[in-house]
Amino acid sequence: MATGALLDVATDFPVLQREGLVYLDSAATAQKPQVVIDAVRDLWEHHNASVHRGVYPLAVEATDRYEGARRRIAQWLRWPARDTIFTKNATEALNLVAQAWGRANLSAGDVVVLTHLEHHSNIVPWQMVAAERGAQLRYVGVDEDGLLRLDELDELLATGDVKVVATTHVSNVTGTIVPVADVVRRARAAGAITVVDGSQAVPQLPVALDEVDADFYAWTGHKLYGPTGVGVLHGRHELLQEMPPFLGGGHMIASVDFETSRYADTPAKFEAGTSPIAEAAGLGVAVDWVDGLGMDAIRAHELDVTAYALERLGEVDGLTIHGPRDAEQRGALVSWSMDVAHPHDVAEVLGRRGVCIRAGHHCAQVLMRVLGTSATSRASFAVHTTRAEVDALVEGLAEVRRIFA
Ligand SMILES: Cc1ncc(COP(=O)(O)O)c(C=O)c1O
After folding, report:
1. What's 37-291's CATH class?
2. HSE of 265 in the Cβ direction (CA atoms, 13 Å)?
3. Which atom of ligand 1 is the closest one to the Cα of 228?
């Protein structure tokens, strides 16, 4: 297999300098490059003040950094900055859509379509609003290769009852890449809005939101080498204008009277309370950093590592790999079941060797039910992952077999 021109950036990450650490859990949270750590620290050390409200220079500097990050992120993903909202994480972004848009627009008999690939954060908020509004949930399944059944989507859309199609862009379990622009086109033609969970896609694939054209697109900063505590929701302007706010409080108002309030325009309307200032600034720098490497180069690197991992894991006896066999059809992660050992035992043995993988249901219990298991093992890759680290994983799995077989 050709290795091509792979990236070599592990030295940018302080934590990866730990002796013997093989970090294969970036789908859970990515490690942070020094520039991101420095940006957060710089904000705290030199520019810390509450944003938007202060007129003194320190507050202006903090506001410039916070709003500059918003503009940078929006420009990078090709979506208007005014319709790019900072949230706490992807979970909060998806709850915002389900609660603010869903409560105002769903009623009895309406259908919300989800997929079997969803993370709980794109299921539970819809269950909550559907129960409140009397709406129904329906699921689109996957085929034997783990690819989304677009024929099932079309069947559901043909009923005329579908108001929302909510789908992940990249599955955090099977790695399946969903053709989201195609899903959006089909849903829009049937009069439904679309909500895309891009948590795994934004760090792994070149994403152009004007091409995806979803009504709402949510993602989370900490998986893009940024800080925890900041996520992003991109929304269609008309919908953001029409829908009520999610949370009420400071900053999201134009004026407040005894009984009622007038709300600020988007994005402030959806950013109640003191903002995640250093976190947003750090995420803006994370975007600079990945953009400097280039998302095409990141995808090429991770594709190489993923293809290599599929090949090497295919050599391990007793392993069932979930999801597409073709690396081109998946993101940078591989989940599997092993005949002789429970995923937690696998992760424990690997962990003792310094190899960090994830074991469990990955917050995707619907998918676990579809796969007929309660847990899988998952190795996920990043811009710093090497083929040698995949070899370390495979050697660790050989030890698991020696212990449990
Ligand atoms: C596909 C997917 N969606 C949503 C989330 C939730 O991200 P957060 O916990 O940062 O909101 C995750 C994180 O594991 C994920 O993998």
Report:
1. alpha beta
2. 5
3. 10
CA of 222 to the centre of ligand 1 (A): 9
Which residues make beta-bridge pairs with 85? Answer: 233
For residue 378, report the phi and psi dihedrals to the nearest 5 degrees. -140, 125
* Ligand 1 atom 12: residue of nearest CA: 199
CATH of the domain spanning 10-31+294-404: 3.90.1150.10
Distance 398 CA to ligand 1 centre (A): 31
Stated pTM of the model: 0.98
Query: In this predicted model, what pLDDT tens digit does every residue of 313-366 receive, in sequence order?
Result: 999 999 999 999 999 999 999 999 999 999 999 999 999 999 999 999 999 999
Q: How far is the CA of 314 from the centre of ligand 1 (A)?
A: 27
Residue to substitute in 199, 204, 367 for testing ligand 1 pocket (most ligand atoms within 8 angstroms of CB): 199
pLDDT averaged per 10 residues, the chain (length 405): 74 97 98 98 97 91 97 98 98 98 98 98 98 98 97 98 98 98 98 98 98 98 98 98 98 97 98 98 98 98 98 96 97 97 98 97 97 96 98 98 95
pLDDT number for residue 3:
52
Give the pocket of ligand 1 (CB within 6 Å). Answer: 27, 89-91, 119, 121, 168, 172, 197, 199-200, 220, 222, 231, 363
- Kindly give the distance from the C-alpha atom of residue 212 to the centroid of ligand 1, in angstroms, as a whole number: 19
Domain parsing of the chain, residue ranges:
10-31+294-404, 37-291
CA-nearest of 114, 67, 79, 121 to 215 is 79
Instruction: Provide CB contacts within 8 A for 217, sequence distance 6+.
Output: 77, 79, 195, 196, 198, 209, 233, 234, 235
Report which DSSP code applies to 89.
S
What are the catalytic residues? 363
DSSP code of 363?
T
CA distances from 190 to 41, 98, 163, 183, 185 (A): 48, 20, 9, 11, 9
Q: By alpha-carbon position, which residue is closest to atom 15 of ligand 1?
A: 199
CA of 121 to the centre of ligand 1 (A): 7
Which residue's alpha carbon is nearest to atom 16 within ligand 1? 172
Which pLDDT belongs to residue 189? Answer: 98
Q: What's residue 5's pLDDT?
A: 73
Q: Are 107 and 132 in contact (CB under 8 A)?
A: no
Tokens coding 244: 């009520």
